Amino acid sequence: MKIVDIKEIAIPLKSSLRNSVFDFSEMTTSVVAVISDVIRNGKPLIGYAFNSTGRYACGAQMRSRLIPRILSANPDDLLDASGSNFDPAKIFARMMLREKPGGHSERSVPIGTIEVAVWDLVAKVADKPLYVVLAERFNQGKIPTKVPCYVGGGWYAPGKGIPELKDEISRRKDEGYTVMKVKVGGAPLAEDLARLDAAIEVMGSPQSIAVDANAAWQRESALTYAKALAPYGLRWLEEPTDPLDYALLSELSGFYEAPIATGENLFSTQDIRNLIQFGGLRSDRDIIQIDVPQSYGITQFSRTLDMMAERNWQRSQVFPHGGNLMTLAIVAGFGLGGCEAYPDVFGAFAGFADDSIVTEGSINLSDRPGIGFEGQNNLFSLMQTITN
């Protein structure tokens, strides 16, 4: 049993959307295929993944050093103790060979993307959905049938005013979502508050609305917005500061009583440890939003969860960034707080399986082996172009 090849291709997202900091007009993502010599139904088993959204394609690092390290290893050294499946932890360690400490995002995204594809392959070898494999290994075998899911929406877009925003939120509510996220910080405060009021009007409660500043604010703006938003009692306020400005984050958490969410732009266990230790976050309400494929992958994520548990953080406070099938499997398998959704936002990379159903704010899980990309026809067609 061995990995015979690993292929990568960069694909543009082709989106005109923007948040408060940047637009996605040039955004790309890396799609990865990890090809094995395990034959099932006459075809080799292949693990797939992509590097989520918000970080550009990272194939250069993969091709120059990460893929060669895996393919040059003794195949038996990459298998689990039984020799009957691949060992993601060993493959992760192989990719980290000769890597200098720190500087995480340069390698955490390409390593994490390959590592998640390996997990897809591992679950396919086991002939189980990935969330089942993860639940068996990391969550005492607790296998859910559905998970909470909210919409990461409310984007700024050309020609999109309050009527269009209300129409978007109304559609998502009709589709079964009960929590909606709206962008803030990319318009004047008065306009953002009008957008927020409109969103609450449609959803019916401030607890059904989260807002996301995408780390746009410096101290003065952050304090002004936080004071204006505090009376609403929103579901959460996301990324109100630069990801590494722990002092300002701690200052905000000192008076902003509703939950604060952050962490999608931190890429290592040490980063999250520093966030918890110095950012003033409160384990009884605040939310951590690690993007797992961008943060070294599932193996390291399990270690981050262990570190958080030692500091009295519950898994229910973890809502990973990224509305895709990879994140859905991770949320279900580890028993996390919930999953994000990007319906109709990032082309083929948006959404879940074609037969997914959202009911009362929760999404169903399929029984397809692996991550289940095979059930997302448009995306899987793109993925197959790597190996066809």
UniProtKB/TrEMBL annotation:
Coiled-coil segments on the chain, per record: none
Gene3D superfamilies: Enolase-like C-terminal domain, Enolase-like, N-terminal domain
Keyword Iron: no
Catalytic machinery residues: 183, 321
GO molecular function, one term: D(-)-tartrate dehydratase activity
Pfam families referenced in this protein's UniProt entry, alphabetically: MR_MLE_C
GO biological process: amino acid catabolic process; carbohydrate catabolic process
Entry-linked InterPro entries: D-tartrate_dehydratase, Enolase-like_C_sf, Enolase-like_N, Enolase_C-like, Mandel_Rmase/mucon_lact_enz_CS, Mandelate_racemase_C, RHMD-like
Textual note on the cofactor: Binds 1 Mg(2+) ion per subunit.
List of residues binding Mg(2+): 212, 238, 264
Cofactor needs: Mg(2+)
Mandelate racemase/muconate lactonizing enzyme C-terminal domain segment(s): 162-259
Alphabetized UniProt keyword annotations: Magnesium, Metal-binding
Keyword field contains Metal-binding: yes
PANTHER family linked: ENOLASE SUPERFAMILY, MANDELATE RACEMASE, MITOCHONDRIAL ENOLASE SUPERFAMILY MEMBER 1
Protein name, entry field: L-alanine-DL-glutamate epimerase
Organism: Polynucleobacter kasalickyi
Lineage: Bacteria, Pseudomonadati, Pseudomonadota, Betaproteobacteria, Burkholderiales
